[in-house]
Amino acid sequence: MSPAIKGMLSSDGFMLKDFEMEDQLFFGTVTRATVPSIFGGTDIPFFDKVNFQINEDENANFVLYASQEMLDEMSEWFSFGAVNASVVPLEIRAARLDDNTYVVHSLASTDGEMDVESLVVNYQFYYAFVGLTLVLGLGLVGVALLILWFAVRRR
Question: The dihedral of CA 80, 105, 53, 29: what is its sign?
Answer without folding.
Answer: positive
